[in-house]
Q: What sequence folds into this?
């Protein structure tokens, strides 16, 4: 499956979430990042739904 085309705003959101994940990773391996991963997944799913229309 190809990745959906992201808007500039969606790219910015994903970049922000990835940066936060990197910051949490510096805190240690035991820090939970699943909430940020769900947010990224939600942005990508929204772009896929928009692309399907």
A:
């Amino acid at each position: 499956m190809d990745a959906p085309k992201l808007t500039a705003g969606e790219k910015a959101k994903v970049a922000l979430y990835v940066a936060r994940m990197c910051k949490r990773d510096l805190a240690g391996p035991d820090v939970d990042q699943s909430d940020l991963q769900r947010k990224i997944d939600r942005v990508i799913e929204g772009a896929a739904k928009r692309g399907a229309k």
Summary: The two ends are 17 Å apart (CA to CA).
